[in-house]
Amino acid sequence: MLEKQLTGHWVDRSICAWFWDQILAQGDSLKLVPVIASPTHYLFQVVREGITFLACTQVEMPPLMAIEVVTMVADVLTDYLDGLNEDLIKDNFVIVYELLDEMIDNGFPLTTEPNILREMIAPPNIVSKVLSVVTGNSSNMSNTLPGATASCVPWRKTDLKHASNEVYVDLVEEMDATINRDGNLVKCEIYGEVQVNSHLSGLPDLTLSFANPSILNDVRFHPCVRIRPWESSQILSFVPPDGLFKLVNYRVKKIKNIPIYVKPQLTSDSGTCRISVLVGIRNDPGKSIDLITVQFRLPPCVTSSDLSSNHGSVNILADKTCLWSIGRIPNDKAPSMSGTLVLETGMERLHVFPTFQVGFKIMGIALSGLKIDKLDLKNLPSRPYKGFRALTRGGEYQVRS
Amino acid sequence: MRNELYVPKEQRLRTATVWPLMVTGRKIIVGMLLKDNSPGVVGAAAAAFASICPNNLSLIAKNYKRLCEILPDVEEWGQIVLSGVLLRYVIAKHGLVKESIMLVNNDLVKHDSEKEDMEPQIATREIRYGINGDIHTEILDIVSKSYLEGPDKYLSQLSHINQDSLVLDDSCITSAKSNDDVKILLQCTLPLLWSYNSAVALAAAGVHWIMAPKEDIYKIVKPLLFLLRSSSSSKYVILCNIQVFSKAMPSLFAPYFEDFFVSFSDSYQIKTLKLEILSSIATYSSIPSILLEFQDYIRDPDRRFAADTVAAIGLCAQRLPDVANTCLEGLLVLALSESSNGDAASLDEEETVLVRAIKSIKSIIKQDPPSHEKVIVHLVKSLDSIRAPTARAMVIWMMGEYSNIGFLMSKMIPTLFNYLAWRFTSEAVETKLQIINACVKGLLRAEVEDMNVQRTIGYVLELAKCDLSYDIRDRARVLKNSILNCMGLQNFEDVKNQAEFRNATNIKCIFGGETKAPIEPFSYRFYLPGSLSQIVLHAAPGYEPLPRPCSLTGDEIGCSTIDVQERRSTGVGSADSEPNESDDSDAISGSLDEENTSDYSSQGSVTGSSNGGGSHNSASSIDGNEEAVPLIHLADGSLASTNKFEESGENNASSLTDFGELMSKRALESWLNENPGSSQSSSDLGHLQRSLARISIKDIGHLVKPKTYTLLDPAIGNGLSVDYIFSSEVSSISPRLVCLQISFSNYSTDLMSSILLSEEESNKGPDSLDQTGSGSDSSLVSHDEIPTLVPMEEVVSLQPGQTTKRILQVHFKHHLLPLKLVLFCNDRKQPVKLRPDIGYFIKPLPMDTEVFSEKESQLPGMFEYIKRCTFTDHIGQPNERDGQSLIKDKFLTICEKLSLKMLSNANLYLVSVDMPVAAKLDDLSGLCLRLSGEILSNSVPCLITLTLTGSCSEPLEVSVKINCEETVFALNLLNRIVNFLAEPTL
Predict the structure, then answer these.
(1) What pTM was computed for the model?
(2) If B373 and its partner were Cys, which of A163, B85, B406, B846 is the partner (CB 3.0–4.6 Å)?
């Protein structure tokens, strides 16, 4: 347990004990409740990779603010430590505390922009670790204040210098789809991000335009994006922070074509259930579909199962989750999985049905059809290198049986 | 240069932490920071503002426009706070927007003419309720009132019909089209809706929800829905808020129903929220696909969720009667299949689905029973396969209730009763009870006499009389006897006189009456969008509803009066904004008047509340006409408290919950202060709290005798004696002045003339009498230079033996040091010293217990001082007052004594007296007095709590606690209180 008191008002540690008592008493269902009212405090909870982040307050405040801050702490820690688990946090106690110090001051968020945090606190690496062991100086705080705080663009250093001027724009999309029991597409939409990785010197001014901005249903911007040009002519004009950041989140609704079909069939009779799942390509996106997985949770009334597939591997995990990793679909045959499930004694037929979650990854294409028209760079000392990529992943892609 | 801007940002956080700094000092700093031009500083300043002086909206006034313009550039966390602050400011300054949904049924707006005739108003109000096109006016009405007053207050008011404390007149309403301030706020929060940070977007959505015109609210919908794709924690919070929005305005979200389809990865809480939203936004066009989706959910492995889905189907069918048949069919199929496959493994979870399904069917049928006869028949037919007792009981209830609904049913009834009689012994208790009920109903509603049925029913009742469960035995006996009695016959079998039987009115009114669904009182609680309270559904400590519309008037804004004038001059040019402006000026003068009168009336509460009478027991019989006697604040407060104690007031439920909230807060405090590890202690403490009775001491006002001080002894003053007492009145000239009542007595044998008190170095002679009249006027104008002494009216002559009184208004430079004055008498100078009494540097601040404890919780730590002393007044003078005190309770006497002493020595308001009940007869420990006051000079509230330990016959130990922001003042006052409590009364 790691604790940081952020206000003068001391919060007793026993609140954590209370929380754990509740978790033990109520089981995991409490883990999913983000706002908990305890007898003394209000707790905000975010669970990331098995680590619970708790924030607590006694007085009224916007709950989303607490949740956002905690989420951001989790994000930054993941970023700094290259992942998030107990051991990593234990190894980097100092950095974690330093980060918390910078991010939150007196209970109010202070510096949360990751790129500026990087300037103040160096991310851990082997060299710094060795150095700290040798010199005994365990701090890796930089002594200077980040320059960005004084500039009119608080997310960027004023005097950046890079040997190579390069900027990469990635379209990363996630496809959410729901297919109901009859095999009809209920809902299909794409949630996408424009990720920009910029290593540009000086104070560049970038303009990004899409070939078909009208398909975007909703958008959400990084603070650096100027709202007016977007409202008037749907152009993204911005001064980028240094490094990797999410420029825009967008959503494209009412997509008609889904790349993969999954056809589950469950028939049950006299205490056993036959299951067969077929997977295939429905609309060929033109690029290869990788890392296909099908995942589902066996209903609680299933006592044992025997599943096999003609392609890929089938694993049954501890919490009755069945994971079928297919990888790439072969040309000659359609992958299928089949087997039998044995139901609880006394139960004749299965009357609850699992939902199948499908994961996949398609490189080189944005399934929403969004296309980047051009990227203009102004105010740069030398000609930069520009790169574009696209990627589509399966998001909440689920097939009900 | 580089660090220059960073420093203020840090500074705001420091300002919040610098406790010892005077409040005013901090306000100034915040004001300065708000003026800054850099977005980084402004965001920080807003946060400081919200934590230091959230109610001091006048600070915003000067910078409002600039703050709005800078809002999009402020860092995200500042945006959240700042948009909330700006919203509060606009409401306090201009009131609500007339096109917004907050005023959709204009109920809040009562014109003067309407106030007079309330009757037609109630009528029109009822008509307006209901679904007005696409907006639930009723809900919106509650929502807007809750936002303005806080739901606890609002709900407690529901019992007093039409007693709205919140009556807005036209001046409290503005228009988004003509008011620039509103327009600019809406404009500047619009880009925030697209923010990256979900908290920012929700805060902006909240502003639009409250301020935007109805037709523009749709702008918040898409951004809010897009936020749902962020993390699951924030998804939950956003859905909670959308739920409220969609309840009030289903049309807003109706086109986007697909976004609320449940995903596999959602948590149970999110799933139920989505179901609730879906069932409230369903329309005839969207219901087919929603029902299709629901069908999938029913098969979900999570049976709780499936059960909720079934309930949601029922809700949809009730909302949209046209689809009721479809829903009913689906539910019936579900119920039948569930009942058939439940045979193998009787899982509890399966049962819940079945029970919910039948419950939904029941509620749908209730809407229009005759048309659904077949469904009832179907259910009854499958009764044999339904296993869950609750489900069976409900089906049997339906059978009894609708036994004569149609031809089919009445035909089936005999067989059914036979079946029930046969199965009776093997049923569960709740089913048995329903069987008995159904039997009686069947008997009452049977259209043709059927000996067979009657015999069967008699058999069932006999069976029930021998049942193991006493509930069933009792019910059977009661029913049988009442049936027999009203028939006047001994034997049940030979019922001859059906007509007489039917007249059995008492049975009929139990079973025969048309069952109507009880109209549930609307008990949703609404809190401001995006607030913590809305998520936990109770007012979190520190929650504040929106400020009263137009509560911020010109004089509070202070220097911005010039601004008003400027605007007025422009307003002359543009005619449309003119009425607004004139209202402003009215409000200014009006509020000034109000302030004065309210001061006076609260004054009366302490000095003149002698007519309270009555013991505290009879207080509850005086029902809610508290307003009729505005003079008696003390009695008023006690009324509320006795209500609470005796739980007999009309707003019973609400007061109970209030009490509960109070309790939890106390428990919370105790948890914090003491060793928090042991939850035992906190619960113990809670128990102790529960055994406190709140009593009222009402007739105390006339007993208050302020202490008399001597200014001049007759021995020194040649027979002139001057005494003074501190009056509890508040000066009308300046709040810094303390009023004294001075009495001059002539004990000599000669006549005295021209007696006057004045300042020491004043060279005013006794002849400068004529200035007194104008003096008070001039002091009004120059606010800063308060005279040490408002010149008093001269005592022209004083006969021997005569006493005359004068009011003197004094400004003490220091609350401990004496003031040197000169007394003129017969043209002779006499230096005198006027000693201040810190107890009168405050004025009573009437409040109720909840407010008190809330304020107390806002002033922890550094602002809390405790001192102990012993109180001995109660011993020593036992039975002096001729037997009357013998009858009186000892506890009461002590309470009275203690409060009398407090009130006689300091100008305070008695909030409440808590007395221990359960403890030993003699033990007074736990007796608690709460008093409140407000420092005259700067209106900082000052809360005093006295807690007693010890027993009646011994000296009591009193612990005095003061919560006040003014550290020095509070400490001095504390010393003073401890001193006078400890010194015995003569």
Answers:
(1) 0.64
(2) B406
